[in-house]
């Protein structure tokens, strides 16, 4: 499992199918326990029912992952430590430190968001307290005490410039929470299509009381 150096909680990692370096959560996730804040259901859901894909899952915004079972392959400790060390070395060499939220845009099919942002001349682009990293164009650095509004303004400007320069509409990987005008969101990920309640919950066909997609 190559999740070394990806920051965050296990629930967020499941929802986003976090990954990198040739692997992701889908590679080792067996099942989760999900509590639905809307319906109150609480039970197990098997990983295939989460429809995990590139930085996405079918979890609805009301569904909270409170437990995850992972299946890991036994291996040699020294080999694993060397692999983690190499990932950390690569990240330090290629990605910025400081205050950032990781990759800002998802990679469009067959291309890299960082390459497109760079090609549109956005490296170093600044708005107030936020700036596109000069080290890796798909990262936005915030100054000490910086504001999320400034980060968002940079995201929108980058997206506009990339669309103008390349015709590609970048999609936002970062989840935006608490902004006054949600219609201003540069590219919100839609709720899972045709599944207003997200995955079939424990009380649904996949749950302990149902059949089909549950654990
Ligand atoms: C420096 C840096 C590097 C990063 N590198 C990578 C990388 O290489 N690959 C990668 O995939 N990501 C990367 N990330 C992004 C992020 O760390 C991961 O996606 C992480 O797994 C998200 O977990 P989180 O707890 O931070 O979730 P948050 O960012 O807090 O939330 C992400 C989404 O998950 C939802 N969520 C959070 N907790 C739960 C829960 N318990 N149940 C259901 N939904 C939940 C939130 O509502 C939100 O929609 C990086 C971030 C940073 C800061």
Protein model, in words:
The chain has 215 residues and is α+β, with helices and mostly antiparallel strands. The protein contains four helices and eight strands; from the N terminus they run αβββββααβββα. The strands form three sheets. A three-stranded antiparallel β-sheet has the order 4-3-5, with helices on one face. It has a three-stranded antiparallel β-sheet with strand order 6-7-8, covered by helices on one side. A two-stranded antiparallel ribbon has the order 1-2. The longest helix has 19 residues, at 148-166. It is globular. The structure holds flavin-adenine dinucleotide. Residues 6-9, 11-13, 15-16, 18-20, 59, 64-65, 100-103, 175 line the site of flavin-adenine dinucleotide (FAD). Residues 6-9, 11-13, 15-16, 18-20, 59, 64-65, 100-103, 175 line the site of flavin-adenine dinucleotide.
Write the layout of secondary structure elements.
Layout: H1 10-16, E1 19-20, E2 23-24, E3 29-36, E4 42-46, E5 63-70, H2 77-94, H3 113-119, E6 126-127, E7 130-132, E8 140-142, H4 148-166
Antiparallel strand pairs: 1-2, 3-4, 3-5, 6-7, 7-8
Bound molecules: flavin-adenine dinucleotide.
Residues 6-9, 11-13, 15-16, 18-20, 59, 64-65, 100-103, 175 line the site of flavin-adenine dinucleotide.
Question: How do you describe this structure in short?
Answer:
This protein has 215 residues and is α+β, with helices and mostly antiparallel strands. It has helices at residues 10-16, 77-94, 113-119, 148-166, and strands at 19-20, 23-24, 29-36, 42-46, 63-70, 126-127, 130-132, 140-142.
